[in-house]
Design a protein that fits this description.
Helix content is about 50%, strand content about 10%. It is mainly alpha-helical. Among the domains are: about 80 residues, Arc Repressor Mutant, subunit A, CATH 1.10.10; about 35 residues, no CATH class. It is elongated, with a radius of gyration of 23 Å.
Length: about 240
């Protein structure tokens, strides 16, 4: 069977669309902002309309960026071109009004629901800290990539940049990433579907929550727990 080479910005069968690696993510945000400005025209907008506003000389590079943002719903198809989604419009409006926290929170919530946001959040359920290579490996698997060549790796690094920019992940001084505590709290507060035919208890340890069968917990405590005398028990 002939292998299909994965190229950034091109959707191969069974694979996710990746960011175009030749244009920095900060520049790609300028492209999205240009779409919000041109949305008021009421007609579909092409990459040729966007390039000068975004400050990018190569119209071809602008065109190559659009497929990724369309694939995650931040750009929408309109006629032969695209238009900015409502979320992108709201995002840039909040930034203009100086409400940066609200703007980035809006974008963070949206991107946490993408395939790459969900895959990274799931990885942090297993490990509290990940380095850049760990994140790239997680994203590589989630994207359906079969060959992690230099081009694809650059595109996946761009996704790490997006995750860091919107603060889904936060990098420490040693270069390790952790999940934003705002999202950790959201995971903790998420409702669990508890089995109705068993007595269970929810236990949270650190950043992870578990559903434990009460009978199994009682048996474990009896076998492995240390029994305390009354004088050793103190209530705070």
């Amino acid at each position: 069977m002939k292998k299909v080479r994965t190229m950034a910005g091109k959707k191969c069968k069974g694979k996710k669309v990746l960011p175009f690696y030749k244009v920095k993510i900060e520049k790609q945000l300028n492209i999205l902002k240009a779409f919000t400005v041109l949305r008021e025209k009421g007609t579909s907008v092409s990459y040729k309309d966007v390039a000068p506003l975004a400050g990018i000389k190569s119209e071809t590079n602008v065109s190559a960026c659009l497929k990724f943002w369309h694939s995650i719903g931040l750009l929408e198809r309109e006629g032969k071109g695209y238009k900015a989604s409502d979320i992108i419009v709201d995002f840039f409006k909040k930034l203009e009004w100086g409400d940066e926290d609200s703007a980035w929170s809006l974008m963070r919530d949206r991107l946490a629901k993408t395939w790459f946001g969900e895959s990274v959040i799931s990885a942090f359920k297993v490990r509290s800290y990940l380095n850049e290579d760990d994140l790239i490996n997680v994203l590589s698997s989630a994207s359906g990539v079969t060959e992690l060549d230099s081009t694809t790796r650059s595109s996946l690094k761009a996704i790490v940049k997006i995750l860091e920019m919107v603060k889904i992940v936060i990098r420490d001084e040693e270069g390790f990433f952790k999940l934003n505590q705002e999202l950790v709290k959201g995971l903790r507060d998420k409702e669990f579907n508890l089995p109705k035919d068993k007595d269970v208890i929810k236990i949270t340890i650190g950043e992870e929550s578990f559903i434990i069968d009460i009978e199994a917990l009682e048996d474990f405590v009896r076998k492995h727990g240390k029994k305390l005398a009354k004088e050793e028990i103190k209530l705070e």
